């Protein structure tokens, strides 16, 4: 298989001093998110109608699964490590902020633009065939769920040179400052019932988690024994926050829309990230030795070469598949969610989705590997930042309201406009320089 051979050649050329465990965790964390999304889908066709009740309402005990499948903190920690390495390399090579940011933006934004254009086209086609606007909104919102993290991650990347410099000067004090701000936001949320300040936790919490990647890069996370003790403290903290604290059990997708650990983020995510990462980092040394095996490392390289494509498109593939099953009279959707037969069908369900996602991934993943354009490299840093912020705002609005939704008419068009103009201003799209 040609793509495996290409990945094998890349793997064989990997420098010996590269921390392969970073790439492994990035790949595994994203794959776990994908499997988690597919696992909890509860599309159910009965009496000619398609329904979808939240699995956490049907079986509240399944909320414990989110303590395993909510691994976005790991992705941000890995991002912190990778950004630190990249910034150090840029400094050695004399690459300034604009040149460093250019490569980061192109790899993150280019695959995203294709997804958004495709969904805009799907929304237009569905509207033409007079599909219920509510269905268009729900389908597009569900499919764009993977994009929410890009909105905040791009902002974290923009701020990375500043936060890394603060880390170098202040060490863990820079982490605890962010933690303190996040705690204050939660106190305002629960204690004073001030909800709007809590939305700033999208910055404080994810920046704090990102800082842990800096600590890992500097070798300041401790030995395996210390890491396990850290994980135990994090577990105890989570237990106190949830029982008897006011935080919900589910670490993502809470059935109670008014109270969630993720919208806006709560300090439970910090504790969860420390718990998971302490456990994973405790086995770093044996895992790094295992990744010297060429086949395992080749698989890791292969997944990472298409990771954004797999992540961005996995729900779209599922939504389209469900739509086709619905048009086929609900074939395959007749099992009641939460029943034993439904659970037994999950491996087959996910296997089919993997088969459907694979050819699309092979088709679109080259977008992640295109070389950086001169247009992007030559764009002024201020324009890059302004353009990236416009992209983030557009992504956030579409992820929140979908196509055809929102408090204002035409908000989806305005959001797409923000992303298009932002891509041009930042230099990701040629034409606006």
Number of domains: 1
Main-sheet strand order equals 1-2
* Derived structural class: mainly alpha
Based on Cα principal axes, name the global outline: globular
What count of helical segments does DSSP give? Answer: 19
Low-pLDDT residue intervals, each spanning 5 or more residues:
none
Radius of gyration: 22 Å
The tally of strands reads: 2
What does the oligomeric state look like here? Answer: single chain
Distance between the termini: 40 Å
Explain how this protein is built:
By secondary structure, this protein is mostly helical. It has one domain. 70% of the residues lie in helices and 2% in strands. The chain is built from 19 helices and 2 strands. The protein has helices spanning 2-12, 20-39, 55-58, 66-69, 72-93, 97-128, 133-143, 148-170, 172-190, 201-217, 224-242, 267-282, 284-290, 294-304, 307-327, 340-364, 374-378, 381-401, 411-426, and strands at 43-46, 49-52. A two-stranded antiparallel sheet has the order 1-2. A hairpin with a 2-residue loop joins strand 1 and strand 2. Helix 2 (20-39) packs antiparallel against helix 5 (72-93), helix 6 runs parallel beside helix 15 and helix 18 packs antiparallel against helix 19 (411-426). It is globular and about 60 Å long. The model has no long low-confidence stretch (mean pLDDT 88).
């Amino acid at each position: 298989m040609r793509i495996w051979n290409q990945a094998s050649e890349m793997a064989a050329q990997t420098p010996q001093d590269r921390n392969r465990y970073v790439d492994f965790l990035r790949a595994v964390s994203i794959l776990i998110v994908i499997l988690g999304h597919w696992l909890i889908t509860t599309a159910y066709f009965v009496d000619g109608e398609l329904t979808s009740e939240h699995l956490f309402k049907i079986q509240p005990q399944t909320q414990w699964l989110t303590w395993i499948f909510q691994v976005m903190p790991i992705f941000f920690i890995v991002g912190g490590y990778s950004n630190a390495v990249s910034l150090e390399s840029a400094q050695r090579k004399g690459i300034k902020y604009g040149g460093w940011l250019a490569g980061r933006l192109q790899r993150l934004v280019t695959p995203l633009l294709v997804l958004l254009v495709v969904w805009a086209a799907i929304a237009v086609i569905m509207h033409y065939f007079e599909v219920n606007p509510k269905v268009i909104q729900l389908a597009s919102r569900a499919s764009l769920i993977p994009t929410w993290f890009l909105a905040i991650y791009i902002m974290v990347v923009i701020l990375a040179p500043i936060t890394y410099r603060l880390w170098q000067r202040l060490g863990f004090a820079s982490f605890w400052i962010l933690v303190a701000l996040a705690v204050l936001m939660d106190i305002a949320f629960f204690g004073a019932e001030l909800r709007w300040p809590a939305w700033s936790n999208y910055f404080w919490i994810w920046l704090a988690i990102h800082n842990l990647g800096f600590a890992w890069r500097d070798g300041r996370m401790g030995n395996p024994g210390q890491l396990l003790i850290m994980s135990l403290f994090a577990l105890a903290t989570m237990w106190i926050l949830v029982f008897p604290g006011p935080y919900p059990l589910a670490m993502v997708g809470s059935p109670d829309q008014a109270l969630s650990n993720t919208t806006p983020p709560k300090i439970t995510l910090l504790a969860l990230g420390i718990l998971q990462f302490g456990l994973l980092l405790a086995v770093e040394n044996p895992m790094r030795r295992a990744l010297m095996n060429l086949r395992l490392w080749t698989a890791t390289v292969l997944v990472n070469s298409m990771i954004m494509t797999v992540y961005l498109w996995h729900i779209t593939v599922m939504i389209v598949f469900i739509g086709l099953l619905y048009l086929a009279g609900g074939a395959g959707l007749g099992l009641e969610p939460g029943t034993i037969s439904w659970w037994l069908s999950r491996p087959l369900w996910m296997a089919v989705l993997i088969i459907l996602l694979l050819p699309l991934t092979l088709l679109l993943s080259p977008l992640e590997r295109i070389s950086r354009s001169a247009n992007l490299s030559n764009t002024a840093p201020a324009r890059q930042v302004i353009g990236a912020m416009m992209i983030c705002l557009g992504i956030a609005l579409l992820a929140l309201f979908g196509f055809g939704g929102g408090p204002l008419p035409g908000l989806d068009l305005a959001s797409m406009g923000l992303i298009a103009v932002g891509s041009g201003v930042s230099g990701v799209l040629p034409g606006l320089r």
